[in-house]
Design brief:
It contains ten helices and two strands, in the order βααααβαααααα. It is mainly α. A two-stranded antiparallel sheet has the order 1-2. It is globular and about 60 Å long. The structure holds fe (ii) ion (FE2) (2 copies).
């Protein structure tokens, strides 16, 4: 176990990080760092609700920080897969976005009265190499898995942003959701390319991978949304106001997003996704 903090330092690279926030990583007029810097809570919340919301944002901080490794680890695989340069460069931007998301979540923890610091296992695993796959297929599978996660995250974040009434939570969720729109494009884009690049055997291997991808996605989403004790409507509204949707609602929205968005989109790409969902099973190799 180690201590995770995601503060921006004051070393020689910190000014460049600030410049990145103002330029490359900016999205529209949004400046969630500035909103957080001046923010106070506008609503009244019980200590218990504040503690649950802090815990949600702290878990999110850890998750966002870890997500950066997925995109940075994808770069070598994308290089081996001979994709075009824009794909490789923008994938690194995605890794930067995720690090930034971690600091934004930390800002929310502070706003909620907590210290954005936690003991966590900071070990990172390399991405699966998929022994049965060609180099393009291996990159495609990992990018697609990331794309499915991002698509689901986008649905959750969009809903949370709609329900949040605290201006700081709205500003942060707006940035996160906007970035996840881009992040989802990597996997869906490569899947589109796959129609021309994969032969029948390669397509069959991709279809065999799909139940593992879907099962692992569900297992990880449920792990990220641990169930606590049932809450009253008033408590649920308060959590929504703070941008911290309760896990039961999150799991329901996840299931609906799979049925209404993810599976139809995979089917439209030519994959037997509904059958794969029926056969889904989690695996370390996803
Ligand atoms: Fe993120
Ligand atoms: Fe993301």
């Amino acid at each position: 176990m180690a201590k995770l903090r995601v503060d921006v330092g004051d070393g020689p690279l910190s000014a460049e990080y600030g410049r990145l926030l103002r330029t490359a990583l900016r999205r529209g007029e949004g400046d969630p760092e500035a909103v957080l810097a001046k923010a106070t809570l506008v609503g009244d919340y019980s200590p218990e609700i504040l503690a649950i919301a802090r815990d949600t944002w702290l878990r999110r901080m850890l998750h966002e920080h870890h997500s950066a490794t997925i995109f940075s680890n994808l770069l070598p695989q994308l290089m081996e897969a001979e994709v075009s340069l824009d794909v490789k460069a923008v994938t690194l931007r995605m890794a930067m976005d995720e690090l930034r998301h971690a600091t934004l979540c930390a800002g929310m923890v502070r706003l909620l009265g907590g210290e954005p610091e936690l003991e966590a296992n900071l070990h990172t695993d390399p991405l699966p190499t998929h022994a049965d796959a060609t180099r393009f297929e291996a990159a495609l599978r990992n990018a697609l898995f990331a794309g499915l996660s991002e698509t689901v995250a986008l649905a959750l974040l969009t809903q949370e942003r709609e329900l949040a009434t605290e201006p700081a939570a709205r500003a942060v969720l707006t940035q996160l959701a906007g970035d996840e729109v881009l992040h989802a494009k990597l996997g869906w884009g490569l899947l589109n390319d796959a129609r021309d690049l994969l032969d029948a055997d390669g397509w069959a291997r991709l279809e065999r991978y799909l139940p593992i991808a879907l099962g692992t996605l569900e297992a990880r989403m449920h792990e990220a949304m641990p169930l606590g004790k049932p809450r009253t409507d008033e408590e649920l509204d308060a959590l929504d106001a703070l941008g911290a949707m309760e896990s039961r609602e999150g799991r329901t929205l996840f299931a609906r997003t799979m049925q209404d968005v993810v599976l139809p989109r995979l089917e439209a790409a030519g994959l037997a996704a509904r059958e794969a969902w029926r056969l889904r099973r989690p695996s370390q190799e996803a």
